[in-house]
Amino acid sequence: MHYQKRPELISHVEEFYRMYQSLADRYDNVTGELRKNIPSDLQSQGSGISEVGTELTPSSNSRSQYGTRAAGFDFFRKSGGSGSDLGPREGDETSTSDDSSANNYSSAFTNNDHRGLHKRITEMESELKKIKMKQEEKSKINNMEEDELRVENENLKQKHVLAQKEISSWKSKLEKEKREVLKLQDRITRYKTNLSDRDRETRAMRETLSNVNKTLAVENMQLEEQVTKLSKERVLLEDTIKEWDLRCQCSDEERRRMKIVKTEMEDEIEKLKFENSELVLNVNELDHELTLKDNQIDGLGQHLARLRLEHIELFDQVEKSKESIHTLTSRSEELEKESLRQQEVIEEQAEEKREVIRQLCFSLEHYKDGYQMMRQAFMGHNKRHEVMAS
Fold it and tell me: Hey, CA dihedral for 38, 41, 44, 45, is it positive or negative?
């Protein structure tokens, strides 16, 4: 705002200066014309004129001493114009009138004119003083405004320096953020590759689980077939036990029948041993397959660990069945020994044979319970795999 007003102020000051110069020139012209129009005899006679001349010369000198500003140019032109018009009129009147009357009139007129000019000069000087005071105030205001502008400029420079520093700091922060973004993008790509690898691993694990479920289903079918066989054998053994009870009533016939039953029992024991060996082989094969599958599906550690524990329990049950079979064989040996004594203690031997039959029934019940436990374990394992697959 101050910068916008400054050229206007300068133009006004220049106009004042030009007006002051024209005013001074006009004043000099008027005084020169007045001196020319005054006759030489009146200049020698009139003391008032000399006094006025002496007053005019210092006033003109004082006017030449003032500075570089002026105002009231139009007013002075009016007054100057009237003064310049008065000169020719005085010449006309002096040329047409008598010498005495003309001299008296011109002396009175010049005195009045000098008084008016002196009054106007004092008024113009007072106006010039006022104008100088106003211009000094304006110069002070301009100086104050320039000082304020300098302070504002310094503040703006400081703000500009601070802004540049902030810009540099923000640029450095932006570079850091860009580097962080690049790092995060690299991490995202690595995570995506890891996720794809994990997806492939889960697919492979699901395939292995499906294969394990298939093999377990096949093994379950085989075990069910074996259980059906054992149940049939149990029925046959119960029938033989009933027949054997009937045969025990007759001693002679019972001996022969006991021998036959003994042979049949031995055959059955051999069959049971054979079936037990097959079961052991199947269990060993299952153990071998389970170990191989455990190596293939290490990622399913907890679930397979439970399956291994269940397999160990089944193996313990098989070992118990072996022990029961061993007891049965020992019982059969005792039966062979007791067959020699059957003539004396038929009833005791029959009771012991009933005990053997009870042991066989117990072993069959034990096999059946082991099968049920194994079946429940496999069913629970299949359910867990189905839950994991879903």
Answer: negative
- The answer, yes or no, to whether residue 63 has pLDDT greater than 50, is no
Where does residue 320 rank: exposed (0-12), middle (13-18), buried (19+ CB within 10 A)?
A: middle
* Total domains in the fold of the chain: 2
Q: What is the pLDDT of residue 353?
A: 67
- The domain boundary, picked from 128, 148, 168, lies at 148
* 170-192 mean pLDDT: 85
DSSP code for 345? -
Identity of the amino acid at 327? T
Burial code (b: 16+ CB inside 10 Å, e: under 16) for 282-301 equals ebeebeeebeebbeebeebe
Of 117, 118, 128, whose CA–CA distance to 79 is shortest?
Answer: 117
Q: Which two tokens stand for residue 195?
A: 């996720």
Q: Based on the domain organization, do 144 and 252 belong to the same domain?
A: no
| 326 close to 379: Cβ distance less than 8 angstroms | no
Which residues are within 8 A (CB) of 234 and not within 5 positions of it... i.e. 6 or more apart? 361, 364
Residues 144 and 256 in one domain: no
**How do residues 75-127 score in pLDDT, each as one tens digit?**
333 333 333 343 434 344 444 444 444 444 445 445 666 677 778 778 878 88
What's the per-residue H, E or C state across 32-81? HHHHHHCCHHHHHHCHHHHHHHHHHHHHHHHHHHCCCCCCCHHHHHHHHH
Domain range for 368? 248-389
Tokens standing for 62? 């004082």
Mean pLDDT of the chain: 69
Last residue of a domain, one of 114, 148, 182: 148
Q: How many CB atoms lie within 10 A of CB 114?
A: 19
Cα separation of 387 and 390, whole Å?
5
Using alpha carbons, list the distances in angstroms from residue 91 to 40, 105, 108, 160, 325.
13, 11, 14, 75, 176
Q: What is the dihedral of CA 77, 79, 84, 90, to 10 degrees?
A: 170
pLDDT band for 132, please (50, 70, 90 cuts): confident
Quick one: which of 134, 132, 137, 18 has its CA closest to 76?
Answer: 18
- For the record, the structure tokens of 251 come out as 């001693």
- Residue 113 falls inside a structural domain: yes
